[in-house]
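Retro notes
What went well: the complex prediction finally ran end to end.
Inputs used:
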Amino acid sequence: MSALLNKKYLPFYATVLVFVAIFLIGGATYRNFLSMRVLGNILADNSFIIIAATGATFVILSGGIDLSIGSMIGFVGVSVAVLDSLGWDPLSSAILMLIFGFAFGAFQGWVIDSLDIQPFIITLAGLFLLRGLCFMVTVNAVPITHEWADLYSDIRIRLPGKGLLRSSAMVMLASLAVAIFIAHFTRFGTNVYAIGGDRESARLMGVNIRRTTVMVYAVAGFYSALAGVVYALYTKSGYPLAGNTLELSAIASVVLGGTLLTGGVGMVAGTLFGGMILGLISTLIIFNGSLNSAWILISSGVLLFGFIVLHRFLVSSFDIGNGR
Amino acid sequence: MQSRAVWPLLALAVILIVDGIISPNFYDIRIVEGRLFGNLIDILYRAVPTALVALGMAVVIGTKGIDLSVGSIAAISGAIIAWRIQAGDPHGLVLVWALAAAAVCGAWNGALVAGLGIQPIIATLILMVSGRGIGMMVNLFYGGTDPSFQSAFLQGLSTGSVLYVPTRLFVFTGLFLLLWVLIRRTALGLFVEATGGNAAASNIAGVNARLIAFVAYVICGLMAGWAGVILTADTHTSDPVSVALYIELDAILAVVIGGGSLAGGRIYLGMTVIGALVIQTLTTSILISGLPPEYNLIIKALVVLFVLVLQSDKARQGIAAALWRRVRQ
Amino acid sequence: MQKETPQSAVTMRGIRKAFPGVQALDDVDFDLGASEIHALLGENGAGKSTLIKVLTGALARDGGEIALQGQPVEFASTGEAQAAGISTVYQEVNLIPAMSVLQNLTLGKTGGRFGVISWRRARAQAQEKLDRLGLKVDLDRALGSHSVAVQQMVAIARALDAETRVLVLDEPTASLDAQETSALFEVMRSLKERGISIVFITHFLDQVYEISDRLTVLRNGRKVGSGRTAETGRQELIAMMIGRELGEVEAAFAGERRAAEGEPVLTARNVGRKRLLQPFDLELRAGEAVGLSGLLGSGRTEMTKLLFGAIRPDSGTLEMRGKGRVGASPGASLEAGMALCPEDRKAEGLVGELSVRENIVLSMQAKRGWLNRVSRAEQEKIADEMIRALAIATPDAEKPVRQLSGGNQQKVVLARALASQPRILLLDEPTRGIDVGAHAEILVLIRKLCAEGLALLVASSEIDEVVSSSDRVVVLRDRRKIGEISGGEITRDNIVTMIAGNDG
């Protein structure tokens, strides 16, 4: 019972509350909003952001940051599309790109730990590098024509109330489930929380900092690559500018999901709701019709501000508990 | 000049020499329609917005901070220009409005960082995310119509020329000197560096570390506002979605290439400008070399990595140890 | 007492360890008997932590031998020491407050196939660890939401395993209240009964007498004494901890004590802050050096910071002659003519990356305001003067200050304060961790400043330094000012008696 009242879950509850509130407000304002169909669409439309944000959750929990997400999505997208035009089937190219994402992330993690450089800067280099590679692969939008791509988009589960659970949403939910398992039921997951909570203590408590750091960025790279694959198959094309500035949406999803940007506190499941909040806001604004996309950015900013300030005061209350 | 200045200057020199080899008439400068033209002029011309932002960033980084929202601030100040011109304000006043808005943005960041004690990356993320939205909102103030404008004064500042030289180079030089005087001819620079080096010790020494950090973000906001003015006047339209996109990354990169450390504690204004020139020269060189422009990002990434490895103590020690082993064998 | 008994748990002989500029341990012997609680005492920088780190393999020693139950041992890491049965709970390194108790007990220890944690098994093991100490703690709550005492117990539970023979507790009671402390002692006693030897580092003398069987005192990296606690008097113990033979320079000063003569320049009435220092009155007069004496944790540093405004008082008023009320912030205090040289040079004293010159002019510049910059030529002149006047050993004024030795860094802190031309100078441990030569120079300087009409407050952990350099002495005990003595009353015995309290 006391675990339920635990202060560190407060941001998570706040996230769920905000999500439900926005959903209800939408329902009260617009007919047809409060339906499984809208929910199913939001899940599918935002699946790639949420997948990428799930990977970013690990990075942020560990006290780091990954700016290479958007470029990774773009690069994986054009690669899958170009491989498609070369006759590869989507499954093979997806597997290749997932391996690439994992390896690229691991490399970033290794550089961060071994050179002791801020992750911000290293992953910024990753952002440039991958975006550059996008343009080297192709400068045009390339369609994906393999029949498996059609097969993929045909997979769907009927939900009650005319709702559809599309394949992208299924991939997203499955990858989220795996991430929750990794975060809460493996030694690696515990180590991530530990190095984000207090790196020095974690080291003295026997956590292998280097291995954990490398793995954290590798997992993030893998999830970004998966997001790229989902994005490519969902849009059935690859475009070298795809995913531009998506790292911001991913990071915002993580923060709105109740994970502290300072690391060590948060829940992977929260990221789902964080991403859904962003998705809800854009859907609401599109429903309205008279509002423009400026509102999406501003309301995200306002929400971010609220959550960051909430986190700030939570952290200082932890400090009191820890102070000597 | 200390030895740390050697590397960025050397990098700049190497790139320029390579350019000369690839394209023999690279250094040519001609006079066309009453102003200078040529690759070297072009590099200076295009480097101005990044260099302006980078100078403000150098001050913030000196306090051990960072400002991710500079691109958004540029977008906001650009939007203010279009709005106030549509509203019929005199164009000199429009400039004041744009810069005032940028200063307010900087003050917001400063309040979050210095007042609430929020980590700089996180605090400035808020304005980074919402700032372009605010710019788009400002565009709506006059009914969402065409956000383009005509202003002889502002376009003159950005794209005009005086005595054959592009006006924005004068604007930049003026702002650089102003900032230099502010940092080096008052005690502000010392206070910023002390705060970034050790905020607790600075406090005990009597420096108001919080106030100093706040001021740094305001300065950074103003410089970003100027970049917004130059960029917006150049295209004479307010385009909050894509103006100054990724400029925060280039600016941080310029500071780092110029020898500034993200750990704070030092401001190198002159070297930061060199850093911005290195970035722009690379971009221009790739353009004229016939390589696809897409290589620009990759080369930039490799330059970042190279500079970071050079600056990392750990890497230097590792390389030194490896060399030593080889020598002994 | 020093006899090597076969049942001694740990024997350390002739341990030496040097850090750049300091001999942290100099030929130290340490004996830990079987199932005993052994208090390790000493002021900050006496070498307690270094000794512990050498014992637990966290630091490599420069010389000496260590034997565990008679067998010579060599630990390359804390892991090896742990495996051999030596567990440590460090003072500064706590656990991870944002994680649950269960996670804190499990971290870095779980096996499991493919790195998958069986929380059921981990829970059983964690519960077993807690049961071993008789602790009842909710495993699922965040560690940080428990009281510090519980956190401390969890840290002990984590450190202990079935093989533990020796447990090292570094200042475990620093932030515990009386009740929490007695609960901790309960646990310590039961561990002792189970045959575990405990090294207990503390600065609370009452606790030493309550729980320890034997004690060892270190001072400036040397062992100054050890013995059975019951046979060591309180005054004797205090004298061991903060006493020191007078050096030549100090002895010379001891003779020329003067009565207070100047006007009071700073008057503190009822200044204090909850939990840090009980409200006190204090007057500082021009030309007078006031010593501040007390044990570690008695509130010395807090008093200097309260007077300077670096810690905001929650009661009382501070008045400066001619300036009215002061003390709102360090900047305001500096403005009014005060300067503070803090105890912790690295964290609060210097900006390591900046040059000697920049550090020296920082306070005077802050006092003049940002618009009125001290010109480079003037800066160089002041820096050179200070370097000469204080004999700061540096090739030039442009060297980054972190590259100087400890004593020279201390002089730079002092130079920075002096360059602001204060009327009142607050010095917190001006001679901490610096070599003998620099030590004497700084004492000479203090005297000289005083003669020039400065009002001085010198907080020090060395009683003889206080005795030799003060015209008046303020004595602190348990975060309270317990008295003031002056003139002929200033003797080592008097101060020791006051610190020990009436029951000593």
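What we learned: Residues 45-290 of chain B form one domain.
What to try next: split runs per interface for comparison.
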